[in-house]
Automatic annotation (TrEMBL):
The active site is at residue 50. The record marks 79 as: Lowers pKa of active site Tyr. This is NADP-dependent oxidoreductase domain-containing protein. Residues 18-301 form the NADP-dependent oxidoreductase domain. PANTHER family: ALDO/KETO REDUCTASE. It comes from Cladonia borealis.
Length: 320
């Protein structure tokens, strides 16, 4: 039987396929979460910056109230935003996010970006975004070490069962591992055939850090943001290699892209408003790609990164 979960170094099991809440509209979020739970999803990947945690929690509460799931059946993920990296802000904002979700703990709480930005009081603006003084990004003074030690307290105090990181490169991870008393359970990164990041994936997995991929479909999500680079890049759904493999297996290109990841022990968090595609996206563990097919898909790598902060106009070149 193929595994549908990834065992984290914290001892907990994380579903290998989840539902990502990035760009899920507030007016539909509760229904989408509820319907995804009915379809079989158990992992939901949220964040302060997405601005829809209240609505996501409403969908969860509805499913629990109707007896579809229990809280312990779900794996709920959220992230620490950049403006809350100072030690004294980490736990309070985590508690606020838990309150927004209407739950007592996160299964996984992640540092969203390795960037400290000047604090913005949630009472003044929430979520605060990147700009904190007009059209300026004012960086903060918190080090990754300070932030991570505060994250460790979040886990020790029972607010999160596991803690992790996102958008960290190998050098930052090496540095973090020197002082971490609790090793990151997961690393969430942009990962698709145009950006395979094979060296980073291998290094993290060798350190016992599970990988979660976001933007598994490459330029698809970013075309919705009118990103020129995404419009200039051919869709993976239409790539001849992907299409040929999909036809051979009787699957959709989306399923092939997700299976390419999960077959290499990389968790995925796609989303869809379509009930049929919701079910299809879950069906990415019970069949296998051939070794040559995996290699052919990996061979599409062009090191194209879409979720680069400079692409949004933020002067934060963290991936250079």
């Amino acid at each position: 039987m193929p595994s549908t979960t990834v065992k984290l170094n914290s001892g907990h099991q994380m579903p290998i396929v989840g539902f990502g809440l990035w760009k899920v509209n507030n007016d539909t979020c509760a229904d989408q979460v509820y319907n995804a739970i009915k379809t079989g999803y158990r992992l939901f990947d949220g964040a302060s910056d997405y601005g829809n945690e209240v609505e996501a929690g409403q969908g969860v509460a509805r499913a629990i109230k109707e007896g579809i799931v229990k809280r312990e059946d779900l794996f709920l993920v959220s992230k620490l935003w950049n403006t809350y990296h100072d030690q004294e802000h980490v736990e309070p904002i985590c508690k606020k996010q838990l309150h927004d979700w209407g739950i007592d703990y996160f299964d996984l709480y992640i540092v969203h970006f390795p960037i400290s930005i000047k604090y913005v009081d949630p009472k003044e603006r929430y979520p605060p975004g990147f700009f904190n003084e007009g059209e300026k990004v004012i960086t903060g003074n918190a080090t990754i070490q300070e932030t991570w030690q505060a994250m460790e307290k979040v886990q020790q105090h029972g607010l999160a069962r596991s803690i992790g990181i996102s958008n960290f490169n190998g050098q930052l991870i090496m540095d973090l591992l020197r002082y971490a008393k609790i090793k990151p359970a997961t690393l969430q990164i942009e990962h698709h055939p145009y950006l395979t990041q094979e060296g980073l994936v291998k290094f993290a997995q060798e350190q016992g850090i599970a990988i979660t991929a976001y933007s598994s479909f490459g330029p698809q999500s970013f075309r919705e943001l009118n990103m020129k680079q995404a419009h200039d890049t051919p869709l993976l759904f239409e790539n001849p290699t992907i299409v040929k493999i999909a036809e051979k297996h009787g699957k959709t290109p989306a399923q092939v892209l997700l299976r390419w990841a999960t077959q290499r022990d990389v968790a995925v968090i796609p989303k869809s408003n379509n009930q049929g595609r919701l079910k299809q996206n879950l069906d990415v563990t019970g069949w296998d790609l051939g070794r040559e097919e995996v290699e052919a898909i990996s061979g599409l790598n062009q090191n194209i990164r879409f979720n680069d902060l400079v692409n949004y106009g933020f002067p934060l070149p963290i991936f250079v």
